[in-house]
Amino acid sequence: MEEKMFEMLSKIYGEMQEGFSQTNKRLDNIENTITKLETKMDGEINNKIEALFDGYKNNTEILHRLEMKLDDLSNKLEKQEVDIRVLKAAK
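Structure (tokenized):
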């Protein structure tokens, strides 16, 4: 009787060890897959962030140029308004 119990326990223990081994292999595969995905995502995200930063820089430069042109036009307009006042006053 004790021998049968020992054999049954040994069999259960062996099956459990086999199950743990399979579970460990599956977990290793999952970890490897996650690592690959993280690496891929990091690369894609970095590229997208760089592209967004470049676009932001370009927009800022364009806005700066437009502000400079607007300032020049405002100065010219003010000068012309002064000239018109002077000409009207001279009449």
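Helices lie at 2-90. The CA atoms of residues 64 and 70 lie 10 Å apart.
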